[in-house]
């Protein structure tokens, strides 16, 4: 059917506007681009932002030239928020809310290239633009324009209609000019009129069948026609749902299935598919339960293990796949998957036989043979989560490619993977937050058994797998959207059982689920249970969990974030039902709301994302920030349920911040060596804050591709960074901090945590019966000299990265700390980091430089008193110091520009091992010597 008279948009989807709502009408009803048209706007309908405004109303209008279905305004003559007299509408006398505007589209717009104007886009406003009139789904109005003489069937507004025997319907055809109009039913004329602009015809459904009604118009030598399909059916047979039948596809034998579709309020449903050559047949009309809720049909005679593609045809006009299907057939995307060999044996979409997304069914499937079913889940506070996007983690972009990288993740030490959404989403290359089918893994990444193998192999390595679950919204291809919506992919209508017509909160994308609806609640529970059971996921990170509310906060972000008792009730219910069947499942919310709400839910058992990206990016640039909000205790929470993070998929990269915006003096953080040191410092402190941790993929080697240059676009992997010695230093630090966290309870649930994070020199103290931990670090860019650093007790402490002992008699010890230098002490001796890892890999602010032999000498060694140091050429004005193994400074100073040889008399210091250090803005040198 040709585009109907008035169409609205919401986000990227075209929605059909039904004339009966009459927010915007035109005179004539079928306007022509070359002729005058009057636009009539009723401000009391739609969003009603201008209703009874007692103000001047202006039209914001645009020409659409890219095609008859485009929603892009190509030519926009008026500026928003101005009292342009040319945009002012005429108020109809005696009407409070009716306004008109007249134009001849081809003459009205500045169109030097003579582009075809297919449609008009319109929004209405007051002069300042502070009040708006838009569609009821908060979208733009669109008015289709005829290009020459045209006839349109304007009622109904779709090209297919279904009726039951005994019903009747009045069809209406309208033309763009006075002409002779007729209706033909299956080729037989049933109505006609001469020299008119419209014609109506009442069709009575007396028998079942499919009929074609065609409107024809003649104007001199010009003719045009348009047809609509009429499907007439007998009333659906009523029958109770067979016992044990669930919504979706029920496999009852190797040759039989029962299909069950919930569609309250719909009248008729058929199953069409490969098994009936996609024909609408009486034998495939679904039965309906007596309450009118569910349609169902038993299909027999199927070939075992053969795949069939099928759809539901609802009310003879809506074609949808099964919302519970685990494999989807797509008319737009599957050919690319087939061409790239991404899914072996994928059956092509049945093009030419149907349209829109369909679903697969297959009896007698061979179940996946799980190998690792007895693994032990780690406690939530011990989680070290690695968030990854299958699309960007490996250039092959498959589940199998991730499997091949599991050894790397195991070597890194993480004990959990968090997969960004992998459920069937719209498009092939996506972050996955635009879901369409909630039970089907997206085929672009591979088969469902590939996904199961990934989870199975991860479990075999002691790595949990958490799924990023998107249940705030659905996109336009979703069957629940399409069952009750405007047009093919439009906004949900008010009678939609699952979804809101307009989102109740800011930042929504797609269409907002109504989480107070019992339909949505049941659906959410079934989705959660399915993935935990069928795929053995270990838990969920719920996207946009703050959106699970019916409290309408509009665009008010502050109000949306406030304590919401109804949202708390919803989440406690979801959590309880997850735990009832899967008591050890992890539940993590991306809530980012008021602390009192998060505390109540955290104390109930849920974990929460804690976004510390801003603070860490600022510190990565050389600024000073107190990041104490990364600790659950500072939020008043009872349990360590805060998953604080430096980075996630949503935030700009910390290393990118250092290399592009880091301070350059006195230490240049834009040089990779110094940026690595800075990021080591941040990471050591980050992992020292108790609670579960999360890192975004490749953060462990300092991924530095900008996020927001193409936010959702494919990013390069940069696996080659692991060949860079500087990047390896950061990777090793991650390994060591993860190992400490996984091995020692002090990093997870200490009895006492003391954070001193406000100053330039920061410290964290963790006290636990098994072991105490202290970390001190210099977040300034200059040397911090003779800084008093605190310890919780006197006695012997151990430098983790060197294994060296420090015996202290006072709980405060003075140290010198260079820029980005940090020291980690434990009260118990621990195994040193693995062989081949140097102290310098972690704790120096400036990396070692390879000095040619003979250019850096300390002699005699051992010494009884006199010590000579020769510095290399070019190391002028170097700072130096002599320290003992506890860090106490005995000698310090700065070499002169003309002196490269330093001499010291050490006769008065006691015998032992000492370190000589020298450093300038480019490098650091150090060497041990013995005093006898």
TrEMBL record:
Keyword Signal assigned: yes
Stretches assigned to the Glycosyl hydrolase family 13 catalytic domain: 387-741
Signal sequence extent: 1-22
Pfam families recorded: Alpha-amylase, Por_Secre_tail
SUPFAM superfamilies with a match to the protein in the record: (Trans)glycosidases, E set domains
BP GO annotations: carbohydrate metabolic process
SMART domains: Aamy
Alphabetic keyword roster: Signal
Membership in a protein family: Belongs to the glycosyl hydrolase 13 family.
Protein name stated in the entry: T9SS type A sorting domain-containing protein
